[in-house]
TrEMBL record:
One of the GO BP terms on file: regulation of immune system process
Main location group: nucleus
Protein name as annotated: C2H2-type domain-containing protein
Listed Basic residues bias regions: 17-27
Purpose of the protein: May be involved in transcriptional regulation.
GO cellular component: nucleoplasm
One function term, GO molecular function aspect: DNA-binding transcription repressor activity, RNA polymerase II-specific
Length: 497
């Protein structure tokens, strides 16, 4: 009996020393660490299937969340703005917009984010990682959804259609933005100036105007930009890339919208019409500026609100300021394909191209004279109207253009900024220097069609032609005698005194 009791006791102790393979506790006891929840293995097996799309899930709660896609159920509502969400984590992320909380910070540049996934995407900027590549053109992307959106360019697919006007879009967000045109909704408002926007991204870009932030930097020249899209456009200047070419005149552009706008000059299309006076414009911004004539609106406290930080000169628009800044940077990204001359502005290149084509599209309705540049026509029209709106503050003499007034002011200032490199003689006006240079070069570019005589100056040619016609244009104010040439009149008048 003693031996039997000993054997039974030993069996009990051995069993107690064995541990349960599930709870990891000693069998027959409740002591030890708390039991872990048993995990089931679902390898190659999904237990819960969606009856709407046949998608399967390993857990019931995952299926429940998925079903909200089909039912449209959004049980989680923001108490601040009333917006609803399908998942709680989406609400948590949204709430941070109101609280301003950004708990996920980049250790490289210090930028913070409301969601961890946004930080993950952002980190790829520093690593340069773009794991998703287009098999059609080889372009790579940081996010898979960016690649999916890009692929629609190749397929031409536009699955999102506006129910109001029927216009279709490749991206759902583009449709959402488009719908605000019909609704007039601009839910994102700048707290600094009160201006409203249809998209949060546009508001964020706008805020940089107030903060002065320019986070996008060109690695070639170091210039910084407010918007990433502006940096992309700028980079094309360094690469000389101009992929969009006009089939009519051969002029090339860095961006497709610029080509579309340019084509309207050939077609004469002016789709933007003022409802007040009926005047039409090629681009919408021109109509917007024109409307201020009727409304009297002055959106800026000063007439020229955009100032150059280098020289202080002010401009009416940011585009004019940008063009002006190229003067300081000696940047002339626009080159004439015919003669190689470079320009800071697209319109200057366009005006220059007419020298090669001989095109003079701007015609005076009074005398029929044609001009290459619209501004030159405007100045010319003042000959017929007699208008001289620019007056000298020193002597009161008036001029048709600011350039003439500027040249005149140099007489009072004794300023002669244009100097001949051959003889050192200086001039107040550049055209006077050009005429003077003809003396050194021996050039006589103005040829008489009657006798083929060449002269240096255009006004000399006019006087020469009068010799053939016999016209007498210059009359004495004392006796009425007429002279063919202007230089004969002062001598005659002196003899009458």
């Amino acid at each position: 009996n003693l031996l039997l009791n000993f054997i039974n006791q030993t069996d009990i102790e051995q069993k107690q020393n064995k541990r349960c393979q599930k709870t990891k506790r000693p069998k027959g006891t409740t002591e030890g660490p708390p039991p872990k929840k048993h995990k089931k293995s679902y390898l190659n097996k999904s237990l819960y299937s969606c009856k709407s799309c046949d998608k399967t899930f390993p857990r019931n709660d995952s299926l429940t969340r998925h079903m909200r896609i089909h039912t449209g159920e959004k049980p989680f509502t923001c108490i601040s703005c009333g917006k609803s969400f399908s998942h709680k984590h989406s609400l948590d992320s949204h709430t941070r917009i109101h609280t301003g909380e950004k708990p996920f910070t980049c250790m490289t540049c210090g930028k913070s984010f409301t969601e961890r996934k946004c930080l993950t995407y952002h980190m790829k900027i520093h690593t340069g990682e773009k794991p998703f590549t287009c098999i059609s053109c080889g372009k790579s992307f940081i996010l898979k959804r960016q690649l999916a959106s890009h692929m629609m360019i190749h397929t031409g697919e536009k699955p999102f259609t506006c129910i109001s006007c029927g216009k279709s879009f490749s991206h759902k967000q583009s449709l959402a933005t488009h719908m605000s045109i019909h609704t007039g909704e601009k839910p994102f408002t700048c707290m600094t100036c009160g201006k409203s926007f249809t998209e949060r991204g546009v508001l964020n870009s706008h805020l940089r105007i107030h903060t002065g932030e320019k986070p996008f930097k060109c690695i070639s020249c170091g210039k910084s930009f407010t918007h990433q899209s502006t940096l992309y456009k700028h980079m094309k200047f360094h690469g000389g890339e101009r992929p969009f070419t006009c089939i009519t005149c051969g002029n090339s552009f860095t961006r497709k919208p610029h080509l579309v706008t340019h084509m309207k000059f050939h077609t004469g299309e002016k789709p933007f019409t003022c409802l007040t006076c009926g005047k039409s414009f090629t681009v919408k911004c021109s109509l917007t500026s024109h409307m201020r004539i009727h409304t009297g609106e002055k959106p800026f406290s000063c007439e020229k609100p955009f100032s150059c930080g280098t020289c202080g000169k002010s401009f009416r628009s940011t585009s004019r300021l940008t063009s002006h800044m190229r003067i300081h940077m000696a940047e002339k990204p626009l080159t004439c394909m015919t003669c190689g001359k470079s320009f800071t502005r697209t319109d200057h290149l366009g005006n220059h191209m007419r020298i090669h084509t001989g095109e003079k599209p701007f015609t005076c309705t009074t005398c029929g004279k044609c001009f290459r540049i619209k501004f030159d026509l405007s100045i010319h029209m003042r000959i017929h109207t007699g208008e001289k709106p620019f007056s000298c503050g020193t002597c009161g003499k008036s001029f048709r253009s600011t350039s003439r007034l500027t040249s005149h002011m140099r007489i009072h200032l004794a300023e002669k900024p244009f100097t001949c490199k051959t003889c050192g003689k200086s001039f107040t006006r550049k055209d006077h220097l050009v005429k003077h240079m003809n003396l050194h070069l021996g050039e006589k570019p103005f040829i008489c069609m009657t006798c083929e005589k060449g002269v240096i100056h255009k006004n000399n040619l006019a006087s020469h032609i009068i010799g053939h016609t016999g016209e007498e244009h210059f009359s004495c104010g004392i006796c009425g005698k007429s002279f063919t040439y202007e230089n004969g009149l002062p001598v005659h008048e002196d003899s009458q005194m």
